[in-house]
Amino acid sequence: MTRLKLSLLGLATLALAACGSGEQNGQQKAPAVDVAQVVAAPTTVWRDFTGRVEAPETVSLRPRVSGYIEKVAFNEGELVQRGDVLFEIDPRPYRAQLRAAEADLARARSEMTLAENRAGRAERLLNSRAISREEYDERMAARDSARAAVNAAEAALENARLDLQYTVIEAPISGRVGRAFVTRGNLANADQTLLTTLVSVDPMYVYFESDQRTFVDSHTFFTPEQRPQVRIGLAGEDGYPHSGELDFIDNQLNSHTGTLQFRAVIPNPQGTFKPGQFARVKMPAEQLAHAMLVNSRAVLTDQDRRYVYLVNDKNLTERREVVVGPQQDGLTVIRSGLRPGERVVINGLQKIYFPGMPVQPELVAMRGSELPREVAKR
């Protein structure tokens, strides 16, 4: 029994010593955390949109005359230049019409010559009173009618020439041609049959819609002399590797959606963009003269409130509620709640259990070695 009592007493003594040692160590060593100083810097706020790619010029090619397709003179999907021959319609009926129109014009001119000669004689005979006034008027009317017939024949000839030209269908624009919807031997009806489609490829347009608030915030960027640059990315691409220029803003908002349409023009020499693609667009939306930027990891959430932990001159933590703005690339704009130079905890937040807790701060950069000047709005 004596030995048992001594053993229990020794274990209790060791436990108390361990607890005392732990408490002493806890009081001596405060947890280490990384802090960064809040810096005010001019910042451009960017806003993200979803856009769609469209070609500046799109043509649905239809024939101007009816006839059977005699030749398809292009490879589907290839690039063509304006004036390249795409289709040929059987020209023989239109050549025959042209010859008939030429013959009609020759006949009309011959009749006009005869009518003018008779009119000239009638005028001389009238002066000598050899013919009646009625016969004179008839010859004058016949001359005028013959001249009108010549004009009509000339118009018919010009129309026949145009119809013959229209049997050769050329590309009205430079761009990429689509598939041939009508092949050789099929009948094409004038102004009805769709032969193929043709779209321009360089440059391209990217259309996107913005809400009214964004337009009000960003109106200072858009002037007749200044067209802001936008950044564009496609599905499967990282970030926004393409740069375009905003060149059009619609003149009224859509009353059903409350949005305003924007358009950016982007070079496309390699054919990367195709009509119908969806694109991600980043546009400058707001200019902040003195934005407070902190690392996004420093911002914590308590229900609907946001807050950060500061470290004061005594190395004690302080909870501070803030109003946050947009964020991008790991940084968040703080609209209110912080002042330049204050130290914000960005690493080791899990070690802080309550406000006023002592810590060992280690000063680090807010993010990397430089403070960025551009922030994208969510």
Automatic annotation (TrEMBL):
One of its GO terms (molecular function) is transmembrane transporter activity. GO terms for cellular component: plasma membrane. Residues 1-17 form the signal peptide. GO terms for biological process: response to antibiotic. It comes from the Bacteria. Residues 57-195 form the Multidrug resistance protein MdtA-like barrel-sandwich hybrid domain. InterPro entries: MdtA-like_b-barrel, MdtA-like_BSH, MdtA-like_C, MdtA-like_HH, RND_pump_MFP. Residues 98-163 form a coiled coil. Residues 302-351 form the Multidrug resistance protein MdtA-like C-terminal permuted SH3 domain. It is found in: Cell inner membrane. Keywords: Coiled coil, Signal. Belongs to the membrane fusion protein (MFP) (TC 8.A.1) family. This is Efflux transporter periplasmic adaptor subunit. The lineage of its organism: Bacteria, Pseudomonadati, Pseudomonadota, Gammaproteobacteria, Cellvibrionales.
